[in-house]
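Hi, here's the filled form for the chain we discussed.

Project: internal
Contact: R.S.
Residues: 76
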Amino acid sequence: MHVITVPDVGDSVTLVTLTQWLKAVGDRVEQGEVVAEIMTDKAAFDVESPWAGTITAILAAEDDEIRVGSELAHVA
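And the returned structure, exactly as it came back:
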């Protein structure tokens, strides 16, 4: 199992809002593929999967506030 985490998007940013999932549990993803979108108070960012495989778990819901580095999803 591999983990997709909230990326570091800036020096002073510690919390982001998950705005949209582009993939669901059971979906196949490729390395570098965008799986979700997050937003800070200043900008929106894509979350890419660092792994190829199948999403086996989604650990955050849309509109959740999440800490940078937190687990978002599992890929097997």
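Let me know if anything looks off before we file it.
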